[in-house]
Amino acid sequence: MLFTSAALALVADLPALASPIQKRFNNVKIRAGRDGTCLSLPPLASQPLANGNPVYKRNCAEATSWNIERGSGSITVANTAESYALDAGVNPHNNVAMKIWQSYPGATQQTWYYTDDNRIAITGGDQCLDLGDNGPQTYQCTPGNTNQVWYVDSGNPAPSTTASSSAIPSASSTSAPPPAQTPRQIRYVYGDYGCLTASGTPADGTPVVLGSCESSPSNTFYINPLSVPQLFGTNYCLDAGSNPSNGTPLKLWTCGAYPGYPQQKFRRIQRGLVQTANNQCLDIKADEPSVVQTWECSILDDQQQFQFTPY
Questions:
Q1: For the structural domain made of 5-157, what CATH number should be given?
Q2: Where does the record place Low complexity bias (predicted)?
């Protein structure tokens, strides 16, 4: 039976005698019913665990392992010296991108209820873990929404004083192979065209230039629900500096903690303009067209015309 939003909101208030049998599963993958991908963090080699690290979807074979339980509790990163938990932010609402934060047991934004019909909801609230088009997020719990179905795979249940009569559902034998995240390119649409490209190994301060649009990890981005372009497969985002102004060169920088640094938000507004902080827009330097900078937004400026395009 699918839970309604009202039923999920009452989960925390159920009397003790009606509490479901709980069993904690350690070192498991949390797999999306929507497409078979799994919740994951960036590889530790590229991004050590820290507050605000983004949670995204990844091929399950390479994805992060978690600790989760049926019923109410924290969802924590497995096999780590420090405890980090899945976190929905201080005001969970629709389209909040998922992240991790230092574990604070009992904190509302870190207390999830894993239901018998495989939903993961904020305990006492109406928001569910949801796999949207741009990755894991919170969204209002909705019966029949397959974006909100999650399975636990390959786990080792922790000892329990009461045996459960129900097993964690396994993967369907007819599931399609998990697809990769959909990459996007940020393409300049005038002149000889070209795509925003990281010029060198991704790191804080790596310049972003106008380069080839030929398929490459250096010119593909994941645009999250907060309009933050994140270089695909890394924890580095487009960044216009702490005080964007005319002529500020574009670069990569470590992606900021939720809700994101203003200089890392780039949203399309009108006629191809891509706006960041201080009413600055992406701009191609007229006398040096490989240079990507910010400049005061102008709808009449052909140097500021961009598209977010999938491969």
A1: 2.80.10.50
A2: 157-175
